[in-house]
Specification:
The structure is a homodimer of 247-residue chains. By secondary structure, the first copy, chain A, is an alpha+beta fold. Helix content of chain A is 52%, strand content 6%. The radius of gyration of chain A is 18 Å and the shape is globular. The interface between A and B is large, with 41 and 41 residues.
């Protein structure tokens, strides 16, 4: 029996929210196609993505979404909930699956707040059209929300033995936490360098995930799109001042 | 065999995010205790809620959370995913459960954006400390996001026959959509009155949910906390100008 080939649909030029799904598929060595990154001649591209999106019985509100046979699933945390047991990235019992999902949904909340640091007014406007508000929101995010969210995850990790967020074994939540740390370091290098001593276990988890053979190979490949200023994690130096310039 | 008594933990003075769980429990006629609304003498109150929250192996990041026997589950959509089949509020097959959850997570995204109309900078600040930004965000929300989100749900409803968002039968998603429409009408009465002709099927769904006997009884009871300016849906007249005063 062949493993199914998963089809991932997401914007082709960014890591964005799709990256949390890519990391799970890559770590599991699962066969998948990143459809919108293929040329139109191979039935790929954004137009193919939007066509499937609009025609499906339960239309996704937005990418990413995953097709697996007849099933089309949207919302990152929902996709990971579905993939988790199939990829061996979460224990199969209900309590573990709900616990992992609870943590993933909290990561979803954090990622939405990261997005709003550069788009506090409207996603229909450019960053350049909401810069004063972005600065104010970023200051609050770094002062209050980073400590609250990452302090929470550090506590969960500590309480579960320090190796894995879910306890006994690696799960897709650990992979997502790698991406959160990696993304926050890209977006806010000064703030994260200053905060790192308060989250030693999360930093160690990040490093262990980066060394997993399939993840290391993925990160070194051209399948890993570099961070850029179109994704969720964006680096605008004015939102992350050097320590000497901080108020 | 007795049905389990569910324990809901949420801030006692607001509908907030807990209301989506209350509506499911009420519609199903499920036995539940709204723990933080009980007096401390009955093991209730906010202190009891926070004590359980901090002591649980998988600490919730924030209320609401649900206790069912030994299980403690946080995140509204996760709670509804768990309760759905147990309360008969979603079909038991995987495809239906994932589809309902996908819709519920999109409602979660909408509710987060509603929250940010009055708190676009920081939840640690009062609304009064972020009024100019709140006005700007609300204008964008009403002009762009309400049409995008509600237009999407109207389309899903239409494609599924017009009676239920998930298709064949009432689900917890329909109950949550009632609350979204009710809350948006409270917060933005002018804007919603103007927008209503574009979402006739959602409005009719809202009205049918309000007439369900257990929901009608609940809404008329003192268990239903009135909307107020501490919850997610807040009415600040300056954020919802009368049509004649709109730009």
């Amino acid at each position: 029996m062949n493993a199914p080939t998963y089809e991932l649909y997401y914007w082709p030029g960014i890591q964005g929210r799709g990256e949390f799904v890519r990391l799970a598929l890559e770590d599991a060595g699962a066969p998948y196609v990143d459809v919108a990154r293929l040329p139109a001649a191979k039935h790929g591209g954004v137009a193919a993505m939007q066509k499937l999106m609009k025609s499906h019985a339960l239309e996704p509100f937005a990418p990413p979404f995953l097709r697996s046979g007849d099933v089309v699933i949207a919302q990152v945390a929902n996709i990971l909930f579905y993939l988790g047991p199939r990829l061996g990235l979460v224990p199969d019992d209900e309590a573990s699956r709900l616990g992992a999902h609870q943590l993933q949904l909290t990561i979803t909340d954090l990622v939405a707040e990261v997005h709003d640091t550069h788009h506090p007014i409207s996603i229909e406007l450019y960053y350049e059209d909401q810069k004063p508000e972005a600065l104010r929101r970023s200051q609050a995010f770094l002062a209050e929300r980073i400590p609250k969210f990452l302090g929470y995850f550090e506590r969960v990790l500590d309480r579960h033995g320090g190796r894995h967020l879910l306890g006994g074994a690696m799960s897709y939540v650990d992979l997502s936490m790698f991406q959160v740390i990696e993304g926050l370091r890209y977006a806010f290098p000064h703030a994260m360098a200053a905060f790192a001593p308060r989250i030693p276990k999360l930093v160690a988890l990040h490093d262990r995930v980066a060394e997993r053979p399939r993840i290391a190979a993925y990160l070194a490949s051209d399948r890993r799109i570099p961070f850029n200023e179109d994704g969720v994690f964006r680096h605008y130096p004015e939102l992350d001042p050097a320590p000497s310039k901080r108020r």
